[in-house]
């Protein structure tokens, strides 16, 4: 066992603050004996795993609390080590005292994510699964939860492992050729490799494409509401958020900066950004807002361009939309507001010029359902409802997939141009390395450090 795992770690595993119960978790070789030193009840060392024990915690003769101890014997535990969970009354004071007591007896306070890191080091979880634990804890929408749970249960890992195994088999054949280099033999079937490469590339590409979606699931669909001052952007945002967060005012240009909030529509998070007007301005404060608007629009997945049906002309709308710095792949929704005020002829002319136009009256909450439907449709078109398909949500994984894809491309062109086996094999190893980093088949201390320190303590 590596030296770092010979000690016993302890941490509060529930949120701090007053609560009905708090759970203090220990993991490591001395977890049971250490608890026995402070626990009055049955002798835990004599008890089987997966059992609960009622008793008291004493610091010398001082009674600290009545507790329930859960006993897990490795390898049948979260970390695969001996694990003890002490459920105390949820008081900060008790927790502090108990942690101090256990540390005095020889436990070490756990670092963030250290329990999960141990689970990984002992092979209970691979790296992608361990990361999904953090995602699952952070999930606050139905989709986020589903994707994290699938990843934690190994869905993504299985897909990658299978892919990697097939490449490994092939790499082995190539390496064999290298060993017999002098004799100029070809063990590896080149057309077979080409076919395999295309298959693997297609899969990696699909996973990479899913990251756009994964990002949406994790961080929400950034939806920028753009439009001229007084179009009703703040009113619309308020209506959508159902609360008076944005400043609504009849003076043009008062929404100087952007205001953000999230709304969950059918389990999908939308992050709405209300912006300062996009019109040219001489007011410097407002000009800064306009510049930031441009930046926000560039980050948007959906740009909702809102205008006043009563005052805008079709040509104006067309010109404004053409001037929007719309990022590639972003969806544009054209929305005419103040339907209640606009003359029917103006509305008809606008509809004729812009057939995809959506009509509403933000002030009267009229037409909002159709808008929500349209918003959801933009995301669904991207296959969010793909159901069982694996979705990449982690930036680290996406980066590794990019490296793998690039290396696979190099393998392919190497084969195509009849490059030496050695070069092809080295590119193939690079692709394997990148894929292996995702699940942690290949990992470094730095990588593990950067992943697990982002966890909360006690996890
Ligand atoms: P922004 O500058 O684009 O954020 O516009 P605001 O949301 O501040 O709205 C400007 C004005 O238009 C306010 O007086 C709103 O009450 C009014 N307004 C917004 N939506 C509607 C609507 O659907 N109908 C009517 N009649 N007035 C609206």
UniProtKB/TrEMBL annotation:
Q: Which cofactor does it need?
A: K(+)
- Keyword ATP-binding assigned: no
| Any Gene Ontology biological process | tRNA wobble uridine modification
- CDD domains the UniProt entry points to: trmE, TrmE_N
User: So where does K(+) get bound?
Assistant: 230, 249, 251, 254
Subcellular locations according to the entry:
Cytoplasm
Positions annotated to bind GTP: 230-235, 249-255, 274-277
- At the top level, the lineage of the source is Bacteria
Q: Which UniProt keywords apply?
A: Cytoplasm, GTP-binding, Hydrolase, Magnesium, Metal-binding, Nucleotide-binding, Potassium, tRNA processing
Q: Which GO-annotated molecular functions does the record name?
A: GTP binding; GTPase activity; identical protein binding; metal ion binding
| Gene Ontology CC entries for this record | cytosol
Q: What class of enzyme is it?
A: hydrolase
Q: Which residues form the TrmE-type G domain?
A: 220-380
Q: Does the keyword DNA-binding apply?
A: no
SUPFAM superfamilies, per the entry: P-loop containing nucleoside triphosphate hydrolases, TrmE connector domain
Listed PANTHER family: TRNA MODIFICATION GTPASE GTPBP3, TRNA MODIFICATION GTPASE GTPBP3, MITOCHONDRIAL
What's its job?
Answer: Exhibits a very high intrinsic GTPase hydrolysis rate. Involved in the addition of a carboxymethylaminomethyl (cmnm) group at the wobble position (U34) of certain tRNAs, forming tRNA-cmnm(5)s(2)U34.
Subunit structure as annotated in this protein's UniProt entry: Homodimer. Heterotetramer of two MnmE and two MnmG subunits.
Q: Which family does it belong to?
A: Belongs to the TRAFAC class TrmE-Era-EngA-EngB-Septin-like GTPase superfamily. TrmE GTPase family.
Protein name in the entry: tRNA modification GTPase MnmE
